[in-house]
């Protein structure tokens, strides 16, 4: 009996739980009551429906596995005092966007939602100071957009110290004052602090970013800015030293100057002997050069790939009349400069002895599809060590100095990621340059998608998804490592993506914008064919979106073709129009449609990827996601990292 009395209160507690719980629909309806709006944008929010309904989803609600993970209420004319407490009953909520509405006053207490990973408040009339510790409880936050408001006071210190995974921070067009905190998060790749009232020195943690993110803050100073920071005078230098302490300092000075004098004498003697040694070497090189005058015209033999009518080799001609031979006509021409030694070390002489096969712009023959636009022609060569390489002959970089070229290519050669194809070496001459890459035996993505290979070799949906995810990871890495470039890639298209034996994509031909002549950039780089007025990292995102839609539909994008060139489909407009009409499923490739019909999980994946592709190809660059966001969104199990939008 005593035991029954002990258990009975616990049973009552359990039976009372359902009565006290609140559903996601009830939580959102309570949140809706705190909003003020002139029109009726939230008519679908009704008590008799499900926010994540399979047939009809509530407007502005983003779901994952039938749970609300995102609220996206943008450009709806909303105002009012947001009831944050009502949202605390949404356990899966990870992202909120109320951008471009009419909310005002202090920043809402979104920091009570400790599970948020992204918060977008830009384009409202929020004002006032944000407490220094506001973000201390939001340790999962990755993206914070507070731009185009009226916030004032200091930038919250907790943004820099309490958010270890911060990726994107937008504070531009506010009234923040004072010094910028030192943001040291390695994950941070997207920052904008322009048009505030900030002052002081640029902190070291942000020095890697482009100077444009600091524009409109006349009080800031730094190496990249018009105003150079003055070094503060050490206060201890003005302290008067008396008695023994003064004598001690004098002794230290004598020792220091004596040491410097000794080192100076040693240095002068060393330079004298080095100069004599250089003279001896110069004489030897002169004698050696005179002995080699008769051998200063060396050639690489090239056979056109695909010429199968006879077994004879073609050494000084090609079917297209291009790339007949590559000669070194200067006795003192530089050798190959290795920038990546993972495939061994080889020299220009090794390439000259190799038989080379001309490749198309995309790594295939002339009968196969071409993406249009390229930084140069290419050939395949097998060197004596057995390594097969692709040599890219570049003629659009003629005005680049050897010092600039060397620095840029060595930087690209230092990159390491399983989804990028890093250059191995280069050869510099004034009239043309050679870039050497590892040869990937499989066809490019362009040919796998559009070549005539039969049904057996068609890519199924899991393969297509793996390729999209790999491209995103490679591009995210490039955007992190080459974030100082306005175009971290610049030429992303299916012909510059190769498939490894395990099906992983290898992104190539990146980071070359600064090496290409201005007159050739528009014709050579596909990023210039995005609708952006100014090319930027978001132009790369647009190109990625085009590749995603190309993989989903199997259609050749007209964005690859040059101006006034026929052929190809404008997949961006084509898909965008179909999405608005709810008829996008019929536009997908048959293998993708088959996967969607056979498996509900695959259907969710396809819808998710399609939304990402459409969002990446949006006309407004500021509304496109960063590549780090794309990587997050492409993993369905963790898609709650951020929102994606297509209302169906």
- Total strands: the figure is 26
- Structural class label: alpha/beta
Biggest sheet, in brief? 7 strands, mixed
Approximate helicity band: 25-40%
Going across the biggest sheet, name each strand in turn: 2-3-5-7-9-11-13
Q: Based on Cα principal axes, name the global outline.
A: flat
Poorly predicted regions: 1-20, 233-250, 286-333, 361-368, 562-566, 636-648
- Count of the separate structural domains: 2
Residue fraction in strands: 15-25%
Structure description:
One of its GO terms (molecular function) is protein kinase activity. The chain has 648 residues and is of the alpha/beta class. It folds into 2 domains: 21-221, Ribonuclease Inhibitor (Leucine-rich repeat, LRR (right-handed beta-alpha superhelix), Alpha-Beta Horseshoe), CATH 3.80.10.10; 326-641, Transferase(Phosphotransferase), domain 1 (Orthogonal Bundle), CATH 1.10.510. 30% of the residues lie in helices and 15% in strands. It is built from 14 helices and 26 strands. The strands form 6 sheets. Strands 2-3-5-7-9-11-13 form a 7-stranded mixed sheet, with no helix packed on it. Strand 25 (497-499) and strand 26 (505-507) form a beta hairpin. Helix 10 packs antiparallel against helix 13 (600-616) and helix 12 crosses helix 13 (600-616).
List keywords for this structure.
648 residues; alpha/beta; Leucine-rich repeat, LRR (right-handed beta-alpha superhelix); Transferase(Phosphotransferase), domain 1; 2 domains; 7-stranded mixed β-sheet; 30% helix
């Amino acid at each position: 009996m005593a035991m029954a009395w002990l258990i009975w209160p616990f049973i009552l507690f359990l039976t009372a739980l359902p009565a006290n719980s609140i559903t996601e629909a009830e939580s959102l309806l309570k949140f809706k009551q705190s909003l003020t709006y002139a029109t009726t944008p939230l008519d679908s929010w009704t008590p008799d429906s499900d926010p994540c309904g399979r047939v009809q989803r509530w407007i502005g609600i983003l779901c994952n596995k039938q749970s609300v993970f995102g609220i996206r209420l943008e450009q709806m004319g909303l105002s009012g005092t947001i009831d944050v407490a009502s949202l605390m009953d949404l356990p899966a909520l990870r992202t909120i966007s109320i951008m471009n509405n009419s909310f005002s006053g202090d920043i809402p207490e979104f920091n009570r939602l400790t599970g948020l990973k992204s918060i977008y408040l830009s384009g409202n009339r929020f004002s006032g100071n944000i407490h220094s510790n506001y973000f201390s409880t939001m340790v999962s936050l990755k993206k914070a957009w507070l731009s185009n408001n009226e916030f004032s006071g200091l930038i919250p210190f907790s943004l820099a110290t309490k958010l270890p995974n911060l990726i994107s921070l937008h504070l531009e067009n506010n009234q923040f004052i004072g010094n910028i905190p030192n943001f040291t998060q390695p994950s941070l790749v997207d920052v904008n602090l322009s048009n505030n009232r900030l002052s002081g020195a640029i902190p070291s943690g942000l020095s890697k970013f482009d100077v444009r993110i600091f524009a409109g803050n006349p009080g800031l100073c730094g190496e990249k800015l018009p105003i150079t920071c003055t070094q503060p005078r050490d206060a201890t230098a003005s302290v008067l030293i008396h008695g023994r302490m003064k004598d001690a300092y004098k002794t230290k000075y004598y020792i220091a100057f004596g040491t410097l004098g000794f080192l100076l004498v040693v240095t002068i003697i060393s330079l004298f002997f080095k100069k004599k040694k250089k003279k001896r070497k110069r004489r030897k090189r002169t004698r050696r050069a005179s002995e080699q005058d008769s051998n200063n015209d060396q050639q690489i033999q090239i056979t056109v790939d695909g010429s199968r009518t006879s077994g004879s080799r073609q050494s000084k001609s090609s079917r297209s009349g291009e790339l007949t031979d590559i000669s070194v006509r200067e006795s003192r021409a530089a050798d190959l400069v290795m920038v990546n030694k993972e495939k061994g070390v080889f020299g220009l002489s090794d390439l000259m002895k190799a038989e080379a096969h001309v490749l198309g712009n995309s790594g295939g023959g002339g009968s196969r599809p071409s993406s249009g636009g390229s930084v140069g022609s290419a050939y395949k060569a097998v060197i004596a060590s057995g390594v097969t390489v692709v040599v890219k002959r570049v003629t659009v970089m003629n005005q680049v100095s050897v010092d600039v070229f060397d620095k840029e290519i060595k930087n690209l050669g230092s990159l390491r990621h399983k989804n990028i194809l890093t250059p191995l070496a280069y050869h510099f001459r004034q009239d043309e340059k050679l870039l050497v890459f590892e040869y990937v035996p499989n066809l490019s993505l362009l040919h796998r998608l559009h070549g005539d290979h039969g049904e057996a070799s068609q890519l199924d949906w899991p393969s297509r998804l793996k390729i999209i995810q790999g491209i995103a990871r490679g591009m995210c890495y490039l955007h992190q490592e080459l974030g100082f470039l306005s175009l971290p890639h610049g030429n992303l298209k299916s012909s510059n993506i190769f498939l490894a034996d395990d099906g992983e994509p290898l992104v190539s031909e990146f980071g070359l914008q600064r090496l290409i002549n201005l007159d050739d950039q528009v014709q050579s780089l596909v990023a210039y064919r995005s609708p952006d007025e100014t090319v930027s990292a978001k132009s790369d995102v647009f190109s990625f979106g085009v590749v995603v839609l190309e993989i989903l539909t199997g259609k050749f994008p007209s964005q690859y073709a040059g101006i006034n060139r026929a052929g190809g489909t404008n997949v961006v407009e084509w898909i965008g129009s179909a999405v608005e009409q709810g008829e996008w499923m019929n536009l997908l490739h048959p293998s993708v449609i088959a996967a969607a019909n056979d498996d509900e999980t695959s259907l969710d994946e396809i819808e998710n990827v399609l939304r990402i592709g459409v969002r990446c190809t949006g006309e407004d660059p500021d509304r496109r996601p960063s590549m780090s966001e794309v990587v997050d969104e492409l993993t369905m199990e963790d898609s709650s990292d951020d929102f994606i939008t297509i209302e169906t």
